[in-house]
Amino acid sequence: MGKFINQMFFTLLFVGLFGAWVFAQSGGTFQIEKSVIAAGGGSSAGDQFSVDGTIGQSVAGITSTGGAFSLAGGFWGGTASAAPIARTKFDFDGDGKTDESVFRPSDNVWYLNRSQAGFAGYQFGTAGDLITPADFTGDGKTDVAVFRPSTGSWFILKSEDGTFYGANFGTNGDIPAPGDFDGDGKADLAVFRPSTGTWFLQRSTAGFSAVAFGTNGDMPTLGDFDGDGKTDVAVFRPSSGVWYRLNSSNGSFFGVQFGVTGDKVVPADYTGDGKTDIAVWRPLSGTWYILKSEDGSFYGAAFGTAGDLPVPGDYDGDGKTDIAVFRPGDGNWYEQRSSSGFAATHFGTTGDKPTPGAYVN
Ligand SMILES: [Ca+2]
Ligand SMILES: [Ca+2]
Ligand SMILES: [Ca+2]
Ligand SMILES: [Ca+2]
Question: Residue 41 — left, alpha, or beta (φ > 0 → left; ψ -120 to 50 → alpha)?
């Protein structure tokens, strides 16, 4: 019917422009095979039919009938789909952009400079807690959360309604390493136990798992390196600068040397291909080194100085993690945003822990 309506449209257009130069459809019975998408309109008349009105989404559901035809408007097929949930890290308002945010140990308050919802402060946690912000509830908004080493307890402030819940998982000396290990959209409670080189995962859908991987002195490195939507069990070994991981997609082992002792591990998806890139920040020179997941090549970028804390995040929401640092001395954020360019923001003060640096070891 696309053709038919187009003909009809042009016919009417020509009628309008040239008056009597009429090109009309006529015949006994029309077979209308396709629908038009918007821009219908006008009318056409003949011996066996008469169609009036607009055919398109705005009048979908209406059935036109006549002597020799029946025309049913309809909605486009498929079921209504909800807007996709942004899965951006350290994004407390769920707008797809990482928010500048800090935890202040002196008053146990989380201060959030949310990119869309604005300022918020939550007193949550106590001295000695380790901050563990992640989206545990799966609504696309990062939840304020802490791990309490003294009791092996997690406390999570739900983004949905501001209530909190607690769970015991892990013990003193464990390094919290929450991630979405089963790929259901919810971060899972997880710890790495250096003393035995064991990961303990409490997966939200797939349940409990213990995985022997890594050794004492290793640092857990959170990311989805193989891009299957599941966080991979992975560590960085500072003594040798080697990254080791188990690819969640097929269980295969992978190791690569990248970085040296003293580097900060800052794995994230800097290139925007959906795979976490292995990356380090070297404090002495303030240099970022990023190993591209696409082709295994690497690049370096000088950004930040000694004493800064690396806070990689997607501050401009373009799907690529941006290199960024928090300067504890003055509470300034410096961001080299992949699409929006450089930005400097003051948020926080001396002694604050920037939440996007929560898993930077
Ligand atoms: Ca945000
Ligand atoms: Ca999960
Ligand atoms: Ca994975
Ligand atoms: Ca970005």
Answer: left
Q: How far apart are CA 361 and CA 357, in angstroms?
A: 8
Ligand nearest to the CA of 135: 2
Cα angle: 28, vertex 32, 38; to 5 degrees: 130
Using an 8 Å Cβ cutoff, are 132 and 146 in contact?
yes
What is the whole-number distance in angstroms between the Cα of residue 183 and the centre of ligand 3?
Answer: 8
Distance between Cα 325 and ligand 1 center (Å): 17
pLDDT in single tens digits along all 361 residues of the chain? 444 444 444 444 433 343 334 444 445 555 555 444 454 455 545 555 555 444 445 455 555 565 555 555 555 555 556 667 779 999 999 999 999 999 999 999 999 999 999 999 999 999 999 999 999 999 999 999 999 999 999 999 999 999 999 999 999 999 999 999 999 999 999 999 999 999 999 999 999 999 999 999 999 999 999 999 999 999 999 999 999 999 999 999 999 999 999 999 999 999 999 999 999 999 999 999 999 999 999 999 999 999 999 999 999 999 999 999 999 999 999 999 999 999 999 999 999 999 999 999 8
Contact criterion met (CB below 8 Å) for 41 and 54 = yes
Ligand whose nearest atom lies closest to the CA of 355: 1
CA 32 – ligand 2 centroid, Å? 49
Q: How many CB atoms lie within 10 A of CB 220?
A: 24
Distance 220 CA to ligand 3 centre (A): 14
Which bin fits 152, alpha (ψ -120 to 50), beta or left (φ > 0)? Answer: left
The count of other CB atoms within 10 Å of the CB of residue 161 is 8
Tokens of 162: 């501001």
Q: How far is the CA of 140 from the centre of ligand 4 (A)?
A: 17
**253 CB contacts (<8 Å, ≥6 apart)?**
244, 245, 246, 247
- The protein residues having their C-beta less than 5 angstroms from ligand 1 (an ion) are 91, 93, 95, 97, 99, 115
Question: Residue 146: which of 316, 285, 353 has the closest Cα?
Answer: 353
Q: Ligand 3 centroid to 117 CA: how many Å?
A: 31
267 alpha carbon, closest ligand: 3
